[in-house]
Amino acid sequence: MKPTQIECARGGLNQIPPWTTVSGDVRLTPFYDPVDVMERVEGYVNDINANLGCLGTRGPCSKYTLEGDDVDVREGKLEITWNDDRESVRQMEGIACDLDSPGLAALVTATEEVKGSAKPYAITGSLPLVRSMQRVGFDVQITGFGLSKTYHADNEYVLLSDMRDAFRILMRVIEINDER
């Protein structure tokens, strides 16, 4: 799980906000059941709420329960909500390329011929359409041709020379597969 946004109630600098929301996403590696992951995370949240007194603190004044007649909320609480239902989440299974596939072999060969070397690597993520296509037998490969450090960056860009090489690589992949 990766937090990507934090929001809390507005108030004075000397006030503890009555609520804070941390939003983020989950990047699954292949071979994990997304619904099982949801259920485990929900179990962890329930365990934390049931055992607030066992959580670590930073001294005697740092605690998750408040006392006094003028306190609206007496005990802290962690809640988790999901943007998707379980059936939708089931489609978000992590994907993995078949290391023995002809498509991967063709892509590596073509990349080596055009760029001089190929260094396949894996990153985490979920692409429902790709996973569905793999399930019905398509040899799906995912690749990028630009600088990976610029993917999804604020200043995302691609070099024309990388796109030229990408075109040459894809043309060579087609040739290799046609020769089979």
From TrEMBL:
Q: Which UniProt keywords apply?
A: Hydrolase, Metal-binding
Report the GO molecular function annotations.
Answer: hydrolase activity
The record's annotation in InterPro entries points to: Bact_exopeptidase_dim_dom, Peptidase_M20A
**SUPFAM superfamilies assigned:** Bacterial exopeptidase dimerisation domain (SSF55031), Zn-dependent exopeptidases (SSF53187)
Query: Does Translocase appear among the keywords?
Result: no
Under what name is this protein listed? Peptidase M20 dimerisation domain-containing protein
Tell me the classification of the organism that encodes this protein. Eukaryota, Sar, Stramenopiles, Ochrophyta, Bacillariophyta
